From TrEMBL:
It is found in: Cytoplasm. Gene3D superfamilies: Aspartate/ornithine carbamoyltransferase. The gene is argF. It catalyses: carbamoyl phosphate + L-ornithine = L-citrulline + phosphate + H(+). InterPro entries: Asp/Orn_carbamoyltranf_P-bd, Asp/Orn_carbamoylTrfase, Asp/Orn_carbamoylTrfase_sf, Asp_carbamoyltransf_Asp/Orn-bd, Orn/put_carbamltrans, OTCase_ArgI. It comes from the Bacteria. Belongs to the aspartate/ornithine carbamoyltransferase superfamily. OTCase family. One of its GO terms (molecular function) is ornithine carbamoyltransferase activity. Keywords: Cytoplasm, Transferase. PANTHER family: ORNITHINE CARBAMOYLTRANSFERASE, MITOCHONDRIAL (PTHR45753), ORNITHINE TRANSCARBAMYLASE, MITOCHONDRIAL (PTHR45753:SF3). This is Ornithine carbamoyltransferase.
Length: 305
């Protein structure tokens, strides 16, 4: 089987996503029933973190153990990655000893260089440009709650970076529309997002207008990891991009609220929204694990079962 990587959402086809969502549901069912399922026995996942993480680490680590495999956890601080060993050399060495690699890093170019020199599949656990594992879990969560996402409207309120770029790629592939509202200066760059046409998204200056009629409203932190020096400037620029009860009222009555987490109540979202009845953020976080178990199974074994 040829090596496949998951470096951005556009790396897989709509048919492959349909498969992954079905597998994620089946694997989740086994987990809830305490059924042992060890298709990745004797396989090892290396997880490389150059940025902090709670969900990504726990979901990959617990998920790999549940599939019968094991994990190695590396950070910049405790490996030669932080001491300028070339990424190409690291890729060659690490991929001779493990079956799968997950990387959370800064520039997308870095993960691409790693993948180019890797003998095993590489998964993007977040870069400045993309967060494909998160959107895999988010779309799976939408489907669980509301059925197919095809033809639906997702309102994006906030920064035009990794999460927004990945939502755009998903909309392009899976046939839904993103209503994008970002503060001036923080817009999505269509070229970075890797989107050829504007058919799958619309831009709104007013976040309330972006939410009007939406089936899902979602947002993210004002200051992403790696941009901390811009914190003060961003607090001012993003002040009106806070998802509140009025925005949720502008959306459809059955609209869901999602946030990849970690969240900052009173900044990008009000507490009554994230802790309110339309919020599915805890299911969304849990689904990282089920969706990524399906992803790891697919990358290592193809379409099994
Ligand atoms: N959503 C997400 O990726 O969370 P962590 O930064 O905790 O991994
Ligand atoms: N956009 C955020 C997502 C964190 C999961 C960041 O890059 O820090």
């Amino acid at each position: 089987m040829a090596i496949r990587h998951f470096l951005q959402f556009s790396d897989f086809s709509a048919d492959e996503y349909a498969w992954l969502f079905e597998r994620a549901a089946a694997i989740k069912k086994k987990f809830k029933a305490y059924e042992k399922y060890h298709p990745l026995a004797d396989r090892t996942l290396a997880m490389i973190f150059e940025k902090a993480s709670t969900r990504t680490r726990v979901s990959f680590e617990a998920g790999m153990y549940q599939l019968g495999g094991s994990v190695v956890h590396l950070t910049t601080g405790d490996s030669q990655l932080g001491r300028a060993e070339p990424i190409e050399d690291s890729a060659k060495v690490i991929s001779r000893m493990v079956d799968l690699v997950m990387i959370r890093t800064f520039g997308q170019d870095k993960i691409e260089r790693f993948a180019e020199h890797s003998r095993v599949p590489v998964i993007n656990g977040l870069t400045n440009e993309f967060h494909p594992c998160q959107i895999l879990a988010d779309v799976f969560t939408y489907i669980e709650h509301r059925g197919s996402i095809k033809g639906k409207v997702v309102a994006w309120v906030g920064d035009g970076n990794n999460m927004a770029n990945t939502w755009l790629q998903a909309a392009d592939l899976l046939g839904f529309t993103v209503h994008l509202s970002t503060p001036s200066g923080y817009e999505v760059d269509q070229a970075v997002a890797g989107i050829r046409s504007r058919d799958s998204y619309k831009v709104f200056n007013d976040p309330m207008e972006a939410c009007r009629g939406a089936d899902l409203v979602t947002t993210d932190v004002w200051t992403s990891m790696g941009y901390e020096a811009e914190n003060e400037e961003r607090r001012k620029a993003f002040a009106d991009w806070c998802v509140d009860a009025d925005m949720m009222r502008a959306a459809r009555p059955d609209a869901l609220f999602m946030h990849c987490l970690p969240a900052h109540r009173g900044e990008e979202v009000e507490a009554d929204v994230i802790d309110g009845p339309q919020s599915v953020v805890w299911d969304e976080a849990e689904n990282r694990m089920h969706a990524q178990k399906a992803l790891m199974e697919f990358l290592l074994l193809g379409k099994v079962a």
